[in-house]
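A reminder from the course coordinator: this example appears on the midterm review sheet, so study it carefully.

Given structure:
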């Protein structure tokens, strides 16, 4: 039996889909993975969205955003988790994991929110000011709704990155689907390790589809149409020099 057959046999084994003798099954591992991911994404959004919206609206600190995004992305999450566990103790493994995942999620959401606000048509913002709107009303009623497409794109990207990185939770004795990858490697059970990687990828695809559906429902058709028009016009402008030269 080759490796692909072994992986299929492992994934279809009923014993792996139920909790027996205190050993968690796949549904429980998926729940743990989603729990760690959801907490990290929520905390990241609570930090990054207000900060990115303020910076985008005022136009102050744009260079700081770029520097922060680049510096935080360079941090190794596994090393940061282990460092925090050593500093806080294994009792605080979940907070240590959450901090490391937030460090991963904040730059993406911060950059997406900032870019979304700054890309709002300035004539629309000026018109809102001319109508007597306050700065808070402009941010909440004009800029944020128009920035939703880019913000949702950042949310999807951050969620996928965090889902993939949550696998390191198994390195500090936590659960999640990374448990199969780490345990499979430790015990040389490569079918389990590969199955764990497949489950993580499948979970990421499902979450991406769900968030895409939510984005389609939340964003107004006018914004979707306007964004599509901008993309097409940009592509046409890009092709014009080539057609002229030919």
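Designed residues:
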């Amino acid at each position: 039996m080759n490796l692909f057959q072994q992986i299929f046999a492992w994934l279809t084994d009923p014993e792996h889909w139920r909790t027996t003798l205190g050993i968690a099954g796949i549904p429980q591992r998926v729940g743990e993975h989603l729990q760690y991911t959801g907490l990290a994404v929520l905390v990241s959004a609570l930090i990054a969205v207000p900060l990115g919206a303020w910076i985008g609206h005022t136009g102050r600190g744009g260079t700081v955003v770029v520097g922060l995004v680049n510096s935080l992305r360079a941090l190794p999450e596994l090393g940061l988790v282990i460092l925090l566990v050593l500093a806080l103790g294994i009792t605080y493994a979940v907070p240590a994991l959450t901090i490391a995942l937030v460090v991963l999620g904040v730059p993406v959401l911060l950059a997406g929110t900032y870019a979304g606000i700054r890309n709002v048509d300035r004539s629309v913002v000026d018109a809102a000011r001319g109508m007597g709107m306050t700065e808070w009303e402009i941010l909440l009623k004009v800029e944020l709704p128009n920035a939703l497409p880019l913000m949702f794109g950042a949310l999807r990207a951050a969620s996928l990155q965090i889902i993939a990185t949550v696998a390191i939770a198994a390195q500090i004795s936590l659960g999640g689907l990374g448990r199969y990858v780490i345990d499979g490697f430790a015990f040389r059970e490569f079918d389990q390790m590969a199955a764990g990687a497949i489950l993580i990828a499948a979970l990421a695809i499902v979450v991406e589809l769900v968030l895409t559906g939510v984005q389609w429902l939340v964003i107004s058709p006018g914004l979707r149409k306007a964004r599509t028009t901008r993309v097409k016009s940009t592509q046409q402008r890009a092709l014009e020099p080539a057609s002229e030269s030919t």
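Residues 231-239, 242-246 have pLDDT under 50 and may be disordered. Residues 72 and 103 are 6 Å apart (CA to CA).
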